[in-house]
Design goal:
The chain is α/β, with parallel strands linked by helices and 558 residues long. Helix content is 39%, strand content 17%.
């Protein structure tokens, strides 16, 4: 993608700068305040421009994958675009997994990558870090890669890619800049600040139709996805649920769209897509529903049990992206709109009118009580660890999750109290996300408590970023569930092949000594009560704390 393929902001000031300074000045003008990355020979001009820049905070990573996961975590808790700075070839390649995750989960991450000197482009002569076409790979994992082929175009390319991250549906984007352009000096026209994309309003006629269906339903139900959170629509969602007397289920990305201790909140619908569900609490609730409003969701396999959840035929789907309509569930009414705008319009349409809903507070409370009782009977320890985390983390605290058995329990039974406080890589379900995402979240919201949950296997994917967190003095407790295995994969091997195991049992380091070697605090917690105390202590520490929990947990019921 070249910069001429999309509109770019109008010009602002004109300055004589190096290309590296032009990148940094443009980012600052656009409102980017955080960058994560690793300096390399090719992008040193950008780093030189950051040395004394007053507005952009930089956190050095130990691997480009960690840097991009940090930017993702930052974006999830702040809603703002974070920059990732990587060098040519290996640096770009190491960032692809986090970019794919950010794309799947609609997060605004802006990667600034380099490429070899402009006069060697396309020749594959064997210059340092040279690849055949790295921009093509970035195109596949982002909303697009803007290739700079004229030095003067650096600000326009950065601004255009930034605009892509702020589109109605947030997505990562990338810029590729030849190294000689970054080192050279020229007169650049810097862009004016980019206004936020206006919220897409819903069609009033469709809102009226949806309101009539929901008011007339005897068992209305709301289903909230990540789009509600990214649109800051939580207050409107809660008010609409109360006006309709409608219980609320959420996708995994939607956890926190409503306070999960609210009487109408029935929790998230996470479940492994490899195990289709045919029963359970959410089945019962959905089978009783005669109308459902789904807002800002893709109905992913992980959140619907491989599309087994029985949504009613009278399904209303609100999404800002029309390509999602009918992809997984066919709605009877589709409304393209910003999630918050649609929820507020629906709230206005139903306000003051009596709904036909027959849900009672007692039956919803009984559903939730029975759900937790079944989980406690299945694994008292699994639920107790989740309850210990919730007791230790303040209501506005952030839980950053890696793929692990404790995370799966949290996805079902950890009550999220506020939006942007439950981070989970549901889109790509990648290992290694949790710890760096938590560090990025803490960098973005140093005022909030941030806790990481990871498994022994997944934590070691990005363990090196503990050094980054220690260097930045990020007081993040990192809870590592050590079950000596890739636990969920071992459970899948057992389910599919019996007791025939290969490559799932792990010989691990001493995690306490490992944490101490990085300069972090480190301890073990041998019970849920000890975990609660350890997390509470770690939240008040002066740097990260690695908390090892040695336990064997089964997968949660679904």
């Amino acid at each position: 993608m070249t910069i001429t393929e999309r509109s770019v902001p109008g010009p602002g000031a004109t300055k004589t700068l190096t290309g590296g300074q032009a990148v940094v000045e443009t980012l600052a003008r656009l409102g980017v305040r955080a960058a994560f990355g690793i300096p390399g020979v090719h992008n040193l001009a950008i780093y030189d421009a950051l040395v004394d820049h007053p507005e952009i905070q930089h956190l050095v990573a130990r691997h480009e994958q960690g840097a991009a996961f940090m930017a993702d975590g930052y974006a999830r808790v702040t809603g703002k675009t974070a920059a990732v700075l990587v060098t040519t070839g290996p640096g770009v390649l190491n960032s692809l997994t986090p970019l794919a995750e950010a794309y799947a989960d609609s997060q605004p991450v802006l990667l600034i990558g380099t490429v070899g000197s402009s006069h060697y482009l396309g020749q594959y002569k064997g210059t340092l870090h040279e690849m055949r076409d790295q921009a093509a790979l970035l195109d596949l994992t982002t909303a697009g890669c803007w290739r700079v082929r004229e030095m003067r175009d650096i600000p326009a390319a950065v601004a255009a890619a930034y605009q892509a991250t702020r589109a109605a549906r947030r997505r990562p984007a990338a810029v590729e800049i030849p190294i000689d352009f970054l080192d050279g000096t020229a007169e650049f026209t810097l862009p004016a600040p980019v206004p936020e994309t206006p919220a897409l309003p819903p069609d009033p006629g469709l809102i009226d139709q949806a309101a009539e269906w929901l008011l007339g339903a005897t068992r209305p139900l709301l289903y909230a996805g990540g789009g509600v959170i990214s649109a800051d629509g939580s207050a409107a969602l809660t008010a609409l649920a109360e006006a309709l007397n409608a219980p609320v289920l959420t996708s995994t990305m939607g956890k926190g769209a409503i306070d999960e201790l609210h009487p109408l909140a029935l929790g998230g619908t996470w479940g492994p897509s490899s195990v289709p569900r045919r029963g359970g609490l959410h089945f019962e609730v959905l089978q009783r529903a005669d109308a459902a409003l789904a807002v800002g969701t893709r109905f992913t396999g992980m959140s619907t049990g491989h599309w087994a959840l029985p949504f009613p035929s009278r399904l209303i789907h609100v999404d800002v992206d029309p390509e999602e309509f009918g992809r997984n569930y066919r709605p009877e009414l589709a409304i393209q709109a910003d999630a918050r705008a649609a929820l507020e319009a629906l709230l206005q349409a139903v306000r003051g009118r009596r709904p036909a809903s027959q849900w009672s507070a007692e039956e919803l409370a009984e559903y939730k009580r029975r759900w937790r009782d079944e989980a406690r009977a299945h694994s008292p320890l699994g639920l107790a660890f989740v309850e210990a985390l919730r007791a230790a983390i303040p209501p506005d605290g952030v839980l950053a999750n890696d793929q692990c058995m404790l995370n799966y329990w949290a996805s079902r039974f950890y009550p999220v109290r506020a939006s942007r406080t439950f981070l989970y890589p549901i889109g790509s379900a990648t290992l290694g996300f949790g710890a760096p995402a938590g560090y990025g979240a803490k960098a973005g919201r140093p005022d909030l408590p941030v806790v990481v949950v990871a498994g022994d296997g997944g934590f070691l994917f990005t363990v090196q970023e503990l050094a980054s967190a220690v260097q930045a003095r990020l007081a993040v407790p990192v809870v590592v569930l050590n079950d000596g295995a890739y636990g969920m994969i071992k459970a899948a091997q057992r389910r599919r092949f019996g007791e025939r195991f290969l490559a799932v049992d792990l010989e691990n380091p001493d995690f306490v000594r490992l944490g101490e070697a990085f300069g972090a605090h480190a301890t073990r917690a041998d019970s849920p009560e000890a975990l609660q105390r350890a997390v509470a202590t770690a939240l008040a520490a002066d740097r990260p704390t690695l908390i090892e929990v040695q336990a064997q947990l089964p997968p949660p019921i679904w």
